[in-house]
C-alpha cells in the first residue's frame, strides 16, 4: 500500500510532551486514525513528518509506539501473543488509546481488551 | 496481572494553560482554522493542535455546541463566499440554453456555455469537498464520540450536504423568472450534462473528465444527511433522467435508421452505440449505469424494431444468409442474444431460410426431371414415326440425367448443410438452440421430398463407385461423414435400407468399390441406427467373403481332380443368401413380371461347370438349392479375331487377341456365335432369344453393349442403327480392333440409376408391404404381452 503521494520518508517522528522523539515506520503509525488524518492533510505535521503530542508523556508514547510496531508486525497473523502491558500504566494508556482513536469501537485495538 | 502488587497510577493532569480547556478559547482556535482551511492556508496549522482542541471540547461534554457552531459557520461561509460565485455562473443565456432549448443556439455555443457552468460547479465542489474532508479529520474525535452517541448525521455528511441544499437545490431566483415552473441549479446541471452527452453521441468532442467529475460529485451526495447507499443523487436524480433522455434519443435514432439505412448499417451502428455507452459509463458517468443504459440501447435499438430490420429487403437476415455475410450474422447473433436468450426471431428466419433453400433445391431438380418425361411422352407418341431412332435413345440419356440430378440434389443439400454449419460455427458460437432448429428444418425439407432416401443411397453409390479411388483417407472420411449426416435426417429409413441394399448389391457383385470402405460405412451406420438396420448389409458382406473362399476351394478341388478340360473355365462364384440380397438382384423381380421363372439357357460348357460346382457345393451342404442368376454375373472371354484378308497394314492385318469382359448374358450370347453352323453368318434377335431364353429387356441391353459402343463392338448389327430392335440381326464383327487388350463392354444394368415412376411405385409398394408385416408383428407382440382376460364360463 505504498502511497503515491510525495512521501519524503518511510518514517515519521513522534515527539512526546517531555521532548522524547520516536522515529516510527510511517505505515505502522497509520493504524491510528488520528495520525492518519494528521499525515494526509495539508497540515504542518504532514509537511515536516514530525508529530508533536504535548500532552502525552514519553513513557506512554513509548508504549504506544511499541503497539504500533506490534500491530504492524502482526496485522496479517492469527493467534498472536498479547502485548505486555504494565498494570500501573493502564489508565494512562487507555486515555492515550482513546486520543489516538485506537479504541475497539473504531479499531481492533488489543490494548483495551 | 491482578496479582501484581503495583499500584495503578492516576492519570496525570497535563500541565496546561487553564483557559485552553475552556470551550470558547478552543472554539476560537478551531474557527480560525476553518477559515484558514477554506482559504487554503492549512499548511501553517498544526493538526495535533486542532485535533486536541476538538478533543478537549468533546471531553468537556460540549460536543453538541461544537457541532452546531461548525454547522452554522459553514452555512455562513457558504452564504457569504460560495453562493455569489455560483450566482455569477448562472447567466440568462445559460438558463435559456439549458432549459428552454432556445432555438438558434449552435451546438458549439451550447457546449461552451454548458462546460463553463459545469467547470464552475466542479471547482466549487472540489473546494468544498476538500475542506469538508479536512474539517472532518480535525473533528474526528467529535465524529467518533459525539455524533455517534447523539445519533446525529456525521459532521461531514452535514457539511457536505450543505452543497446539496444550498447549491443544487437552490432555485434560480431572478434568472428563473422567464420560466413557468420553478427550476433548481440541479436541473441546469442535469440538462447541461444530458445536452453534452447528446452532443458527443452526435460526434462532438466534449470534456469527458468534467462529466465524470460531476457524476462522481453526484455519487458522493445523498438525498439526506443519513447517506443511505441507494439514495445517491446520481441514482435518484441524474440517472433516471439520463436513461429517459437516452431512450428518447435512441428511439429517434432507430426510426431514422429504419428509414434511411440498411440492416447491415443498423447492426454496426447498434454495436458501436453499445460500446460507446459502456465507454461513456467508464469515462464520463458511472459504472453503476452500465447495465441500465445497455438495456435501454438494447430495448430501443434492438428489440423495438428487430423484426423490421430482419425483414429488410436486400440487407435483412435473408440476404445475410444468402450472401454469406458472416460478420453481419455474427453481430446479429450477439445482439439478439442480448435481448432474447431463446433467439426466437433468428430461429424462425433461419428455419424458414433452410426450408426455402431446401425446397429450391427440389424445385431445381424438378426442372431437371421435366426434360425427361416430355421426351418420353414424345417418344411414345411418334415411336412408329421417323423420330424412332432418336426417341429410343432418349430414355437412356434421361436416366443418366436423372441419376446426375440425384447426385446433384444430395450435393446441393450437403452444400446447404455446409453453409449453415459454417454460419453456425463462424457466427452463432455453435449455439445449440439454433443448431437444433436448423437440423429440424433440414430433416423437414429432406423428408418432404419423397425421393430423398433413394437419392441419398444413389449419392453414396456414386461416390463409392467413382470417387474414392485415389483419394486420401481424409477425403474418404469426409465422404463417409457426409453420408452419415444425410442418413441422420432421413425419416424413411426402411426405404433407404431397401435402396441401399440394391445399390450395395450391385457394387459388391461388380466389384465396383473398395470393400473396406463399404464396411467402414456400414459400421458407422450401425453405430448410428443400430444392429437391425445393417443386419442385411453385413449378411451381404459375409456372403461375399464366404463366396471368395468357396471359389478358391473349388478351384483347388478342380486342380486336384486333374480334370483336363480343354476349354478350361475359371469360375468365380458368389453364393448369396436370399434374404440378405435385394429381390431385383436375385432375379425375383423378373419372376413377377413374367409370371414364370425365366431360366436362361447356358451353353453346354458352362452347364457342365455349373453341375460340377453344384456337386462340389452339395458335398458339405446337402439339401441346399442353388439358383443361377445370370443377370448379375460377369464373364471374361478370351477371343481371337482372325486376320482380315486383304488388309496388309494396320491392326486388321494380323490376328488379334482380346480379353472381353462382359456380363454373363453377354457371354452366353457371344458363345452362340462360336457355335454358328457353317455358312450362317448372322443370328436374328429372335433366334438369339430362342436359343438363350434371356428376357427381352436384358437381351436388348446385352446386345446393345456388344454392338453399339465402338470400343466393344464385337458384333455387327444390321441395320447399323444406334438402337436395338427385335427385328435386328447380328453377326460376328471381324473388323473389330482395339488398342487395348482388355476390353470392358459397358454393362448397362450395373449403373445405379434413378428409378422410373413405375419402379418407384413398385419399390414403395414393397416397402409398404414390409411395413405392414412389421406393424402386424408389433401388434401381435403387444397383444401377447397383455394377459388374456379371464373368461367366465357360466354353468
Tally of domains of chain A:
1
Largest sheet of chain A: 3 strands, mixed
CATH-assigned fold name of the domain at 18-231 in chain B:
5 helical Cullin repeat like
Distance between the termini of chain B: 108 Å
Structural class of chain A: alpha+beta
Estimated radius of gyration of chain B: 49 Å
* Overall mean pLDDT of chain B: 75
CATH class placement of the domain at 18-231 in chain B: Mainly Alpha
What spatial order of strands do you see in the largest sheet of chain A?
Answer: 2-1-3
Shape of chain A: globular
Average per-residue pLDDT of chain A, rounded, comes to 79
Straight-line N-to-C gap of chain A: 28 Å
Assign a percent range to the helix content of chain A: 25-40%
What's the CATH H-level superfamily name of chain A?
Potassium Channel Kv1.1, Chain A
Return the structural class of chain B. Answer: mainly alpha
Compute the number of helices of chain B: 30
Strand content bin of chain B: under 5%
Subcellular location (chain A): Nucleus
Keywords (chain A): Nucleus
Organism (chain A): Canariomyces notabilis
Protein name (chain A): Elongin-C
How would you characterize the overall build of this protein?
Chain A: It is found in: Nucleus. Chain A: Residues 11-70 form the SKP1 component POZ domain. Chain A: InterPro entries: ELC1, SKP1-like, SKP1/BTB/POZ_sf, Skp1_comp_POZ. Chain A: Keywords: Nucleus. Chain A: It comes from Canariomyces notabilis. Chain A is of the alpha+beta class. Chain A has one domain (11-99): Potassium Channel Kv1.1, Chain A (2-Layer Sandwich). Chain A is 39% helix and 13% strand. Chain A contains 5 helices and 3 strands, in the order ββαααβαα. Chain A has helices spanning 26-29, 33-40, 44-48, 58-74, 90-99, and strands at residues 11-16, 21-25, 50-53. A 3-stranded mixed beta sheet of chain A has the order 2-1-3. The radius of gyration of chain A is 14 Å and the shape is globular. Mean pLDDT of chain B is 75; it is low at 15-20, 370-396 and 588-597. The relative contact order of chain B is 0.04. In chain B, the strands form 2 sheets. Chain B has a 3-stranded mixed beta sheet. In chain B, helix 1 (23-38) runs antiparallel to helix 2, helix 10 (233-260) packs parallel to helix 12 and helix 12 crosses helix 15. By secondary structure, chain B is mainly alpha-helical. Among the domains of chain B are: 18-231, 5 helical Cullin repeat like (Up-down Bundle), CATH 1.20.1310; 543-629, no CATH class; 634-750, Ribosomal Protein S5, domain 2 (2-Layer Sandwich), CATH 3.30.230.130. Helices cover 65% and strands 4% of the residues of chain B. Chain A binds chain B through residues 17, 33-34, 37-38, 40-47, 51-55, 57, 85-92, 95, 99, 101, 105-106, and chain B through 1-2, 4, 6-12, 14, 16, 40, 42-48, 50-52, 55, 134, 137-138, 140-141, 144, 148.
